[in-house]
Design goal:
single chain; mainly alpha; 3 domains; two-stranded antiparallel sheet; about 60% helix; elongated
């Protein structure tokens, strides 16, 4: 059947149904309401379809509750595309476009990509309005390519978008043919990332195993559990009682499970793991794209080729840069970052106020667990703020991208990616940064607390240690994100799709119009699927980047993060596959030979992981004070005791003494009694201060210097290991390099023979 049929229709809206043979593969479907004749919307619709008809497009109209227009492009467009981009089968360049054997680029995914570009860039004469503008003005409701119910579509549904395939290898080649290289590369990267996460998962479990083995023999936990006479200073003002250190026995034992000597080795391992992961991915990517013959593909060249195919008379839009516009965008970005940091400060104030409210409540449980409950509810509130601000961040990022007026969609996508990642990163990690590095360190001391608005004193660390707060925050946020968010992300499209099916009115089947009825059934099914946003793939990448950040940056405080990420990714791959194949309209296939800007974001996260984990161990964890005590102040060093744990006496050494007579007016003298009713003259608090003037002691400055020395050594050693690992692992496998070398030789040899033949003639 010939691709092109001579038509002489009355208009692009009439006369097609009887002239187009069936079956025909429709590249795109446009949907609109049945506007009243001669209305402005109807006129613009006709003009747009006329522009398509001038380019040789064939259009079929089917009327249901909406008007559906099937679009089929002429084969000449694809021959031009093949010719301009130098088809590998035509190395000599001697054949004319009409002589080319159109094979690979005639695949449905290639047709959809080219037709989508033409549809999006076809302008109405006189108004320069494009399809995007017409959809904003409700001339067209939507435009989408069709899913394939048979052949490859059914294959992906059976072998990829099913829960029983959760542990099976993904059919990347079939995904590439159906959805294009860009989406296939995302799933290839996600599968590789999940595969490499298995090593990090095993390494993350090891500190827990070590902590469990030394659970009962840990000297610090023993001393805390036995400290039933150590009176601690109140954790808040008014009605906040003195408490006994042994009350935190359970928390101390739990903290030892993830904060022990093995955590340091795990942090070093994860920093190296992040580097090895990226280096191995570069090798994997080179192998994959070489197999697709995409290694030397040029994105800009393809964009220019599509522009020429669409309208060779229009000049390509040139790159532009305005310092004024860039400055405005930068200022707006900084303002947005300040707003996000302000939200993190609001969460801090929430925890401060809620702690006071809980301690003054009538519930004995809330009074005793005020700090823990405040941290947990604060983490939940942080998650809710993340959900809300994620939508705001995407909207602001799009607005800023529109201000910059990018030259092409790829440039717009890159600008959007950078901005939305910065916003999302600050949204997720500003509060965690405060908890990790500032909580309990800027709140002052008993008798001289730092207060919010001169009223509420800043919160202190959890009684069992500052790292416990960070552990709780990360555990709550990561768990909620990977359960509730994924559940909503899947259920919302599923419910919407089922609702549309239920709301659809049944249509009577006309046996005399079998071909039209079959088209109608296919088009209606695709129309009822959920819409796909142009930045859908960016959002999927974004979720993985945030997860990767959790898995690497503060992983020293939450070694189970890789395990949760591994389990989540196994589910995430199938969830996304089901959504893409069964619940959402088909995404427009796009070409790519790398994951683009996301690779550089992964590199940046890897560097932040070294800094973050070094700071967590040096500042948040008690690892450095313990080591300093063990090798400087412990009985093992002072009196050369043998057969004694070198951490004996550490708890008493790490607590400073405060005279209760020096309390501020916020403490009622009548409340200066311990739980047994005895009068209290002194209380203890975690810090290194002198008991007379409360200035920092000599031990404080020793530990302060040791913290920064460790941070300096840790970061430089790990960064050196990262550089050595990056140098040892070649970016491209030897097989790929040799294959590219042979291919270049073959191309040059063909040109040389062609030149020799022309010289002989």
């Amino acid at each position: 059947m010939p691709d092109e049929i001579p038509l002489i229709p009355l208009s692009p809206l009439e006369g097609y149904e009887g002239l187009i043979p069936f079956p025909r593969k429709w590249d795109f479907v446009l949907v609109c309401d049945d506007h009243s004749p001669y209305s402005e919307k109807d006129c613009k619709k006709k003009k747009f379809l006329e522009e398509l008809h001038k380019k040789g497009f064939i259009i079929k109209m089917i009327k249901d509750q909406k008007l559906f227009y099937g679009v089929h492009a002429p084969s000449g467009i694809f021959r031009k595309y093949q010719w301009l981009l130098s088809n590998p089968d035509n190395e000599s360049g001697l054949l004319l476009p009409q002589q080319l054997d159109y094979q690979e680029t005639a695949l449905t995914s290639a047709r959809i990509r080219i037709v989508s570009f033409i549809l999006q860039n076809t302008e109405l004469q006189g108004t320069e309005e494009k399809l995007h503008d017409l959809m904003k003005k409700k001339v067209f409701e939507t435009a989408f390519p069709l899913h394939e119910r048979g052949n490859l579509g059914s294959f992906l549904e059976l072998n990829w978008a099913r829960w029983r395939q959760i542990l099976c290898r993904q059919p990347i080649e079939e995904i590439r043919i159906y959805f294009g290289e860009k989406i296939a590369l995302y799933y290839a990267w996600l599968g590789w990332y999940t595969h490499i996460l298995l090593a990090a998962t095993v390494a993350g479990i090891m500190p827990f195993i070590y902590g469990f083995i030394t659970f009962s023999s840990n000297q610090v936990s023993k001393e805390i559990c036995e400290a039933n006479t150590t009176i601690m200073c109140p954790l808040c003002d008014k009605k906040c009682p003195f408490w006994i250190l042994s009350d935190t026995c359970t928390y101390a034992k739990i903290t030892h499970l993830f904060d022990n000597e093995g955590t340091v080795l795990f942090a070093v391992f994860m920093a190296v793991w992040a580097t090895v992961f990226l280096e191995l991915w570069k090798r994997k990517r080179a192998t994959v794209v070489s197999g697709w013959n995409m290694y030397q593909w040029d994105e800009e060249e393809e964009e220019v080729a599509l522009e020429l195919i669409n309208n060779p008379e229009n000049a390509s839009q040139e790159y532009q840069h305005s310092y004024i516009c860039s400055s405005i965008v930068l200022i707006l970005v900084l303002i947005m970052i300040c707003v996000l940091i302000g939200i993190a400060h609001a969460l801090v104030i929430y925890r401060v106020v809620v702690t006071v409210i809980f301690t003054q409540s009538n519930s004995e449980f809330l009074q005793e667990q005020a700090t823990t409950v405040a941290v947990l509810t604060g983490a939940v509130l942080h998650y809710l703020s993340i959900v809300i601000m994620s939508k705001v961040n995407r909207y602001i990022a799009r607005f800023l991208c529109d201000l910059e007026k990018p030259r092409s969609f790829s440039e717009r996508e890159k600008n959007y990616t950078i901005k939305v990642f910065i916003f999302q990163f600050v949204t997720y990690f500003s509060s965690l940064t405060y908890v990790a590095f500032f909580l309990g360190r800027i709140n002052g001391r008993p008798g001289s607390y730092v207060r919010v608005s001169g009223k509420w004193r800043l919160e202190e660390c959890h009684p069992s240690g500052c790292i416990t707060d960070l552990f709780i925050q990360m555990a709550v946020i990561m768990t909620l994100k990977q359960t509730l968010s994924n559940l909503v992300e899947y259920l919302l499209p599923w419910i919407t799709y089922k609702y549309r099916l239920l709301c659809r009115k049944p249509q009577r089947i006309n046996m005399e119009q079998t071909s039209q009825d079959l088209c109608k059934e296919e088009w209606l099914w695709n129309y009822q699927l959920n819409e796909v946003d142009v930045f859908t793939l960016c959002d999927e990448y974004m979720d993985m980047m945030i997860q990767y950040s959790f898995t690497t940056i503060f992983v020293a405080a939450f070694p189970l993060a890789p395990f949760l990420a591994f389990v989540n990714n196994l589910i995430e791959i199938r969830l996304d596959a089901i959504k893409m194949v069964k619940l959402k309209k088909r995404m427009v296939p796009k070409k790519a030979n790398s994951i683009g800007i996301w690779y550089y974001i992964l590199e940046a996260i890897g560097i932040l992981a070294v800094i973050g984990n070094g700071l967590v161990i040096a500042i948040t964890s008690d690892f450095i004070p313990m080591q300093m005590y063990k090798y400087t102040f412990s009985p093992c060093k002072q009196k050369n005791y043998t057969g004694i744990d070198c951490l004996t006496g550490y708890i008493n050494h790490s607590l400073s003494v405060f005279n209760v007579q020096h309390f501020e007016h916020t403490v009622n003298p009548a409340d200066l009694k311990d739980p047994m009713g005895n009068k209290i003259t002194h209380c203890r608090y975690p810090n290194y201060r002198n008991s007379d003037d409360y200035s920092h002691s000599t031990e404080f400055w020793y530990i302060f210097a040791a913290r920064f020395a460790f941070l300096f050594v840790f970061e430089h050693v790990v960064l050196c290991i990262k550089l050595i690992a990056a140098w040892l692992v070649p970016d491209d496998p030897r097989k790929v390099k040799n294959g590219n070398l042979k291919e270049k030789r073959r191309k040059l040899l063909l040109k040389l023979r062609a030149m020799d033949n022309s010289t002989e003639v």
